[in-house]
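Example with several molecule types.
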Amino acid sequence: MSATLPFFRYHPDPVTSGSIRESTETCARCERATGWIYAATFCTAQDVDAHFCPWCIADGSAAERFEGEFTGSYRLDGVSAEILEQVTRRTPGFHAWQDPHWLVHCNDAAAFIGEVGYTELAAHPDALDQLRTDLRIDGWHDAAQLENFLAHLGHGASAVLFRCTSCDTHLAYADAS
Ligand SMILES: [Zn+2]
Ligand SMILES: [Zn+2]
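Resulting structure tokens for the full complex:
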């Protein structure tokens, strides 16, 4: 392993989440082979293969050069323009079935942990309770059906898990195919 990866406040472990992987490929921005390459979403009108090194993501140069965003600003309500810019343009995104987005807690974007199944979600009862409440609000009125859906997370549908960077509360939303 070469240099330590840059730290991403809103995506602290992009190697475990699968968004950055070890690779001999060269970065589309700096054209260096750093040993690491980005392997998730990048939205741009330009014709570019979004294989960036983590450093060109962290300093914003990849997003600037190719006029793109790693994640849309959808649902990033109530955060400062600075945080919005950091999440969408200087943080590795992630793969999801539906449009990936960030959750907000304590007026800050939360840190993305990963897509998880029921067992990993249940290890964070705060996130499980919050997801159950959100799904009820979204129209899951049949409690048995809802519990069945939650219990099968990880098979087809999964939970996108976050942790608040201020208070450490875990939170999640459901991602379905
Ligand atoms: Zn680079
Ligand atoms: Zn919080």
